RNA sequence: GUGGGUGUAGCUCAGUGGUAGAGUCCUGGAUUGUGAUUCCAGUUGUCGCGGGUUCAAAUCCCGUCACCCACCCCA
C-alpha cells in the first residue's frame, strides 16, 4: 500500500455531478419499467464462479478471461458478476418463481470485468436489465425493446441511438446453419484471422461479426442464416418485425449480428451510438429459451435486455444534456442565533409540505459568507430570517438565479408561494 | 495481455539544463442585513515516485507507478 490511499485499479469515484446524472438515468429506467408492470429484483454482487461459466459461457471474454475471481474461506471459487442475466435466472429458479408464474423482472447494479479501461469501458460499471420468463412469442420481445425506446425518448437521446435486430432462429435452424458455416470455413482456415480460427471450434457463429476486414471479405460468399431458418423460425422473425413496425419503432436488420454472450436464440437486438469513443454499444438483449434449463430449471422460455447506464450517461453528455447538479432548491439563512428554532421549524415545514430540497446554513460566519455559501449550493432562493422578519412573522426570499428583487412575505403564506411560483421555476 | 499519450498550484495548463509560472479557484478588503458581477491585495507547490548524469535537472538518461486513449472484447 502506497503512502496515501489510492483507488483500486480501474475503479472510479463518481462525484456528485456524475452520480446525480447516473441516478437520473437509473430513475428513468425504474419508473418506465414500473409503468410496464415489471417487478424489481435485487441480486447478489457475487455468485459461485460456476454459475457464470455455465450460464454465460467459458469461451466468452467476459467469463473466460475478465472475471474478478477468488476463493472464499471454504475454498470455493467466487466471482464478482460480469453481467446480470445468469444471476437473475438462478434467482428465479432457486426461489421457485417459475412454477405457475411468468415473472417480469428488472434489476440494476454494478458489474465487474477485468479489462483494460478506456472511454465507455470500465472495470466496474452500472447496468440495468430486465428479464421475462414463460413467454414464447415475439410480442414480449418487442415490449422489451419498447421499454428502452421509451427511456431514450424521455432522456432526449432517441436520435442518437440506433436499434439493430437479427434472428438466430431456433436451435435446429441454428445447428444446421452452424454446420454449413463450419463446412464453408474449414477449407479457408489458413486465410482466417487467428481469433476466428479459434472460434471455429468454440463458437463459429461469432466469426460472423469479426472485425477483421479480410475475414469479412471471405464471408461474402458464406452461407446465410436466413436460408437455414425453418418455418417456425422464419415466422417468428416476420412477426417480430411486424409488431415492431406497428409500434412505430425504427430499426435496421443486421444479418451478421451475433450477441457476445452465447445463450441467445431467435430475436437478438442491440442499440448503438456514435458518442462512446471506440465503443458503440449502449445495450442489447434477446431471447434465450434454453438458459433456464441449462441452469437446472424446468424448460422455460425467456427474454431480456441489459443496458449500460454509464454509456447512456455518455450519450447524454455528448448531447449536451448532462444534469446540472444542484444540491438544494432553498438555502435557509438565519441572521442571528436567536432565530435558530424559528428557522428550523420553517425548514421542516418546507421539506414536508412543499417537497423542496432545503439546505440550512450551519457553522455561523459572516453574513456575506452565508450568502456566498447559498450561491455555491446552487439554490434558486435564499430564505433569510433576521430580527425584522421574526418580529413581523415574515420571511425574506432572495432569488439567486435571476435579477428579480428580493421580497418579504408572511410566513404563513410561504407554502402557497413556493408551491405556485417555485414549482414553475423548477419546471424550466 | 499489447500499443500510444499524459503526469508541474484545488482545477485547466505553459515552462527543453541556470531564481517555480499564467489563468482560474480560494482568502481578505472596498460593502458589519446580501451571493454572483466589478476593483484592490494576498496564499498556492514532495514539478507522480525512485535512482543516475551534471557545478546545476521540472527539463537529459534508466526504472517504476498512476491515469487517459486505442487494440481486443463488450454495457
Describe it for me?
This protein is an alpha+beta fold. The chain has two domains: 16-170 and 230-318, 2-Layer Sandwich (BirA Bifunctional Protein, domain 2), CATH 3.30.930.10; 330-427, Rossmann fold, CATH 3.40.50. It contains 15 helices and 16 strands. The strands form three sheets. Strands 1-5-6-11-10-9-7-8 form an eight-stranded mixed β-sheet, sandwiched between helices. A five-stranded mixed β-sheet has the order 13-12-14-15-16, sandwiched between helices. Strands 2-4-3 form a three-stranded antiparallel β-sheet. Helix 2 crosses helix 4 (85-94). The longest helix is centred in the first third of the chain and has 20 residues, at 16-35. The model has no long low-confidence stretch (mean pLDDT 91). The structure holds one RNA strand of 75 nucleotides.
Number of folding domains?
2
Give me the CATH fold name of the largest domain.
Answer: BirA Bifunctional Protein, domain 2
Amount of helix: 25-40%
Say how many strands there are: 16
Q: Can you identify the CATH superfamily of the largest domain?
A: Bira Bifunctional Protein, Domain 2
Classify the secondary structure makeup into a structural class: alpha+beta
C-alpha-based Rg, rounded: 27 Å
Model regions low in confidence, pLDDT < 50 over at least 5 residues:
none
Q: How much β-strand is present in the residues?
A: 15-25%
The N- to C-terminal Cα distance equals 49 Å
Mean pLDDT: 91
The biggest sheet, with number of strands, parallel, antiparallel or mixed sense and barrel status, is: 8 strands, mixed
CATH architecture assignment name of the largest domain? 2-Layer Sandwich
Major sheet strand order: 1-5-6-11-10-9-7-8
Write down the CATH class of the largest domain: Alpha Beta
